[in-house]
Each structure stands twice: as C-alpha cells, then as structure tokens.
Amino acid sequence: MQSPHPRPPALPPSLTVNPRLTPPVHVPLLVLLLMLGCGVVAYHLSERAGLRALADNGERQLELHAHTLASAISIHAYLPSLLELETGVGRLLLEPSERRRAQVNAYLEGLNQRSGSRAVYLLDRSGRVVATSNWRDADSFQGDDLSFRPYFQDAIQGKPGRFYGLDSITGEPGYYLSHGLRRAGEIIGVAVVKIRLDPLEERWQRAQLEAYVSDGNGIVILSSDPARRFKSVQPLDAERRTQLASSLQYHWTRFEELQPLRRQRLSADTELLSLPSAASAQPVSYLAQTRRLADPPWDFTLLSPVRDVRSAATSHGLLAAVAVALLAFLLIAWNERRKTLATRLAAREALEEANNQLERRIAERTEHLRASNERLKAQIRERRQAEESLRKTQDDLIQAGKLAVIGQMSTSIAHELNQPLAALRTLSGNTVRFLARGDSATASSNLQTINELVDHMGRITASLRAFARRSDDRGEAALDKAVDAALFLLRPRLERTPLTIHRTCADARLAIDQTRLEQILVNLIVNAIDALSAQSDRQLWLDGRVEDGHYRLAVRDNGPGIPPALRSQLFEPFFTTKPGEQGLGLGLTLSASLAAAAGGSLTAQHPDDGGTLFELKLPLLPPSPAESRRDA
C-alpha cells in the first residue's frame, strides 16, 4: 500500500543547511532590551487599566454615598415647616406663658423622638429659644440667644435656613434646618431642626471606605478618618482664618491644611494624591474623585488606594518580561531547529500547502459564523435584559411618583383623619353618659354617627391603599370613576384651595389600568391647584371628546401659565417650577410615560387667553358584547 504522504527524497549535500549552535553576541543584549521595554509598557498599560477600573468603581461609590448623604438630610427637611400646623406653637409665639411652653416642649420632645433628629427647638423673632425638645437635659437650648446663627437670619427673612456648624457651647457638630413660621402672612418665629451626620462616618468606617466631605468654606466636616476632620482642603490666608474663627461655626478649631505630598491631575474631578499616613512612615497614594452635591453645596471626595493597582501592574510587567524572555528563547530554539528541517520539509510543505489553505479557510469561515452567532445571541440577551431593566426602573419610578404624591398630601390626610377622630372621641364619651342616664335614643343616634365617621375614614384609607398599589401598563379604566377617585383623594387640598370645577367629560372605557389613570389625573389636578393657589378666581375645566378611536381629555386652568423659556423642559425628569421643596419634578414625566405605555400621549398647550391646558390622549376599549347587544 502506498503512503498518502510519501517521504521526500534526500537532498544533495550542497543544499543542506548547517545550523549555528551558538547565537550571535548581540542577541542576548537585544533580548534584555526587549524584556525591559515590554515590562515597562505592560506596567503602564496595566496601571492605566487598573486606574480606569478603579475610577469606574469610584463613580458608582460616589453616586451611592452622595445619594445617601442627600437622603439623610432630605428626610428631615419637612420637619421645620411641620410646626406651622401646630396651633400651640403659634399661640406660644404670640402670647407666651409657662403652661404653653410646657405643652410645646412636650410636643417637640415627642416629634424629635419620632423623627430621629438631634433636637427640635423654637425661636421667637429676637432669636431667643422659647421651646425645645431637649428641655430636660442639662445642656438644653432653652433661653439661649441664637440670633447670630445664619440659619436664624435666613429663616427670619422668609428663606429656608441651611447651616452646618459646631455648637457654640458644647462643640457638638450638627446640620441645622430652619423655617420661618408665618401667621397671617407675617413671620412670628423660627422652627429649627438639628440632625447629626456622624452615623454616615461610622458607616464609612465599617465599610472601610476612605472619604470626606468639605463645605463651601473648604473645611472638611465629615471624614472616615478623624485626623482629616476640620482641616482645610484649600489654602487659607490670615484674614480668612480670622473670619472663620470669629463666626464660631467650627467652635475653637485651629485650621490645618490637608496638603498632599504629590498631586497629579487626571481630569476635572479626578486626581492622584499622595497623603501622609499615621499608620506608616511611607505616604499612601490615592485616586481622589470629587463630586459637588446639589443641596447642600458640598464637595464629596472619595479616596481609593492605588496600592493594589500598582502591585498588580508590577506583577504584569514582570510577567510580560518573563514571557518575552521565554518567547525569545523559544524563537531562538525554533529558528535553530527550523534551519535543520527547512530543506527536509520543503517538499512536504509544498504538497500540503493547498490542503492547509483549504482547511484554514473552512476553519476561519466556521469560526466567523460561530462568532457571529454568539454575538447575535449576546445582543439578544443584552436587549432582553435592557428591556427588563427599563421596565423595572419605570415601575419603580411610577411607584416613587405615587408615594411622592401621597407624601405631599400627608399633612392634608392627617388633618382629614384627625377631625373624625376628634368627633369619635366626643361622641363616644357622650354615648356613655347618655346610656348612664337611660337615654337610649340619643345614645343610638350617637352610635349611628360614629358608624358613619368610621365608614368615612375607611373610604379615605381604602382610596390611599388603592392609589399606592403597583399596577400594569395595560388594563381597563372607567373615566368617571377615575375622576371621582382623584377628586376624593384631593378633597383636603380642594378644601384649603377651593376652585370651581367645570366637568363636561362623558364617561368612557379606556385601555389603561384604573390606578394609573387615577395617578395621571391626580398629578394634573395637583399642578392646577398649585398654579391657582396665589389667585382668588380659580377655575378648572375637565372636557373630553372621542376622536379616531381615542379619547381626548383636556385639563385646563386659568392660572398664570408657563413662562415661554420653561415650556420646552416641562416633561424633563426632576424639572419643576414649584418653589422650595414642594415638588420632585416627576409628576409630568411619569404621567407622560404612563400615557405612552398605554398607547396614548400627554401634551401641553398654552392658550392665548392665559392658563395652561394638558391634553391626555388614550385609546378606547371596544364595546363589550353586552353593550353591543344593548345598543342593537
């Protein structure tokens, strides 16, 4: 049998190659230079990639902890304005007495315990503390004159007070939130809430996170390392030091500068720093990333040690050098071996070249098809994951919008429930006395009234529970039922800000979830109420019509309208024209998203005769078989 690969014949001695047994002298030098160059390049590439990964992780950490810091402050922002609802507070400020002070002290003590703040206290117009939650403590604020504090000076002028500082007596740090209390349009006092931000530092220490926060003066006020606290991140001249010391904002702190030993700027908010270490004599290098917070205007700086990145880069450089040396050794050995086998394999290579080329082409084509298939599968998986993530994010944002609306209505709901509760307490006491007298008729009437009040409270809580539950994009909704539910939820707001509602929209069955339609209507009516709050003539029109298989509902008010410069931003997330912290800027964005998810739209129009008109377009549901037979 003949072999498929015949052995090539021996070549003449003149065609053979004598391999060189020893390499030239310059080859080892070239190998050493190549090892050094590849090691340095691998080190720098690895360091750059490591710093990039460290920066990406730092951005996520910055986002998380900056949001945590802002949330720790925002959850207490409503407390100062809450005191405006307590009638005893206004009476104490207008007509102070020891009995009223004791009542307000007890109220503030309970409010402070429930909210988890450090202290809640009340100042009169002169800046003196007239009531405080810590009236039982030896270091109580009772009677202190705090008129020199910036948060009092801002609040007495009608502006929200925000201030970080150390207590002028105890030196305890805290963040102060203040609000001017009004009676008949005039500020009669100032409510102040003090919160502690120390738990954030403890959380950073437990997470082994190195970070600090500097305020507008460039002073570190929060730090995972206590040695960096109250140091200046920027140079301070003598005049600036004197101003900060005289303000007593930082008590009697001696300001030292937090000066790095070495600094390399990488971008606008990222740099490499070398700071002295108390644990070792060698300085520690960090990747410093800074983010400016919106409220309060502080700088949050995250310090990520680069020691591990540089250790890994050194290892990669050494591995690259070793790999180059091994590769060079293999290449030299292979080259020497190739010289001895070149003449013997020439014939076989010529015969096998065609077969090898064909096999390579087949393998390349197969690999290309396999890679294309894998990329297509990966794209399909990524798109499905992105759609699922988008849907979950949208659902969470919709739920957040609902809870934000309920949070804004919490004061009104509490007032709505307090009135029946007070009536229940009075009626139940009277019923006991009437039963004792034997007057069963009057007692029965009181019990009937109590039953009606309980039903009324149940309808309020049931409406809130239905409004807050999660829902789907698709569903079926009755327009009249949604309008009635929205007006019922907003009844406390409508009682405080009465307006005339012109309701000319006919009932219709719409292709949207009932709860989501109610949420859209609540957002649109709340915006109209807020827009009309400053005028006496308040008109709201609800007008609907059927057009091309859709129902168009127009919600129009006669308010001041939207300024032309702001109209293009109406449906942007977190954009709001409401003053202070009255709005989150999510209402219109969520409403437009809900309408689009149901196959409809939400647009804004600006009539020439004033006011604002929002048109909600939603698809109609086909009539049910029972309705079709009834129409026939």
TrEMBL record:
Return the PROSITE patterns for the record. HIS_KIN (PS50109)
Q: Where, by residue number, does the polypeptide cross the bilayer? A: 25-45, 317-334
Top-level taxon in the UniProt lineage: Bacteria
Q: Which UniProt keywords apply?
A: ATP-binding, Cell inner membrane, Cell membrane, Coiled coil, Kinase, Membrane, Nucleotide-binding, Phosphoprotein, Transferase, Transmembrane, Transmembrane helix, Two-component regulatory system
User: Per its UniProt record, what InterPro entries does this chain match?
Assistant: dCache_1 (IPR033479), HATPase_C_sf (IPR036890), HATPase_dom (IPR003594), His_kinase_dom (IPR005467), HisK_dim/P_dom (IPR003661), HisK_dim/P_sf (IPR036097), Sensor-like_sf (IPR029151), Sig_transdc_His_kin-like_C (IPR004358)
Q: What is its EC number?
A: 2.7.13.3
According to UniProt, the reaction catalysed is: ATP + protein L-histidine = ADP + protein N-phospho-L-histidine
Q: How does the protein's chain sit in the membrane according to the entry?
A: Multi-pass membrane protein
Q: Which residues form a coiled coil?
A: 341-396
Q: Report the GO terms under cellular component.
A: plasma membrane
Protein name as annotated: C4-dicarboxylate transport sensor protein DctB
